[in-house]
Design goal:
The protein has about 300 residues and is of the alpha/beta class. Helix content is about 60%, strand content about 10%. It has 14 helices and 5 strands. Strands 2-3-4-1-5 form a 5-stranded parallel β-sheet. Helix 13 packs antiparallel against helix 14. The chain is globular and about 65 Å long. The structure holds zinc ion. Zinc ion (ZN) binds next to helix 3. Zinc ion binds next to helix 3.
């Protein structure tokens, strides 16, 4: 299944080739960055006609393709020893004779400074037939020296109509449900597809919506308690902020009263500030607490 992108993201993705070896995929949580990276690995290695039956496709589908390497944090960070280990593995030739090896850093903002400097050396003299993709919600947390080695692809939210049509035609969701999920996900393709496919994800998002209601009606003290509870999960925080944005925009459309309108506008600005703030290298818990005080 081909991922759905914002038209500008689609244009940037179509330019990706082995001519360049390092890419920075930048954008909010659950927008489709990881899905796109895995889809690209498949495109670059597939030897069959329908993207299903060749060995590469089968192994990528099963999550066991040896030329698709995902580096994730050991505990809280991707440390320099992980990058050294990777460097050692990359000295070997790729497993497939004609294919392309892909290394995904997920999330790249969890690379320590030391690890980023070590990665920089690899990016400066990349091994043959290897593409590096750094996934991040916090591009400012990546060293300028590393960023400048990478082509940046920005992932933006997708218009609801396009997302609804995608869910109906590609994910095979009933039309009415597709429209509802596209509305809920606020243009986050990854979230919409996850909600369509996974009952547990729908329940988790319902909780996020309840938390958004609580946040909007609670005292600052209660909000801070909730922030402390949610901060450990980036996915929950992302869903909470999506649900908050959606609720506030609905309230804005429904309200007539000038003082309520200006209060909602201020809350939306606070959410906007939070998104800008959390794109920088700040402690996610501190960013969320800032939002709770700001709302
Ligand atoms: Zn194939």
């Amino acid at each position: 299944m081909k991922p759905l992108w914002h038209p500008q993201t689609a244009a940037a993705v179509s330019q990706i080739s082995t001519q360049s070896t390092s890419y920075l995929f930048s954008g909010p949580q659950q927008i489709g960055k990881r899905t796109t990276a895995v889809w690209l690995a498949r495109q670059l290695n597939c030897t069959c006609s329908d993207n299903r039956q060749c060995q590469s496709c089968t192994l990528i589908q099963a999550g066991s393709f040896p030329d698709l390497i995902t580096v994730t944090p050991d505990e809280t960070a991707i440390g320099v020893s992980q990058v050294h280990l990777l460097n050692h593995d990359l000295r070997l030739n790729p497993y497939s004779r004609d294919g392309v090896r892909m290394v995904i850093f997920d999330p790249a903002e969890s690379l320590t400074i030391e690890a980023q400097n070590s990665l920089l050396k690899i990016l400066e003299e990349p091994p043959s037939r290897t593409i590096f993709i750094l996934l991040t919600t916090q591009p400012d947390a990546i060293l300028p020296t590393v960023r400048s080695r990478c082509q940046t692809v920005y992932f933006a939210t997708v218009p609801a109509a396009a997302l609804g049509a995608y869910l109906t035609n590609e994910v095979r969701v009933d039309h009415t449900e597709a429209i509802r999920l596209a509305d809920i996900a606020e243009g986050h393709v990854g979230l919409a597809v996850q909600l369509a496919a996974d009952q547990a994800a729908r329940q988790s998002f319902q909780q996020a919506e309840q938390s958004a209601d609580q946040v909007l009606s609670a005292s600052i003290f209660e909000r801070l308690l909730l922030a402390a509870k949610l901060a450990a999960s980036t996915e929950l925080v992302s869903q909470l902020t999506i649900a908050l944005g959606r609720k506030l925009r609905h309230q804005l459309r429904a309200s007539q009263d000038p003082s309520t309108l200006s209060q909602i506008a201020n809350q939306l600005q606070a959410l906007e500030r939070y998104h800008r703030f959390s794109a920088r290298k700040v402690n996610p818990k501190a960013a969320l607490e800032g939002l709770m005080l700001d709302l």
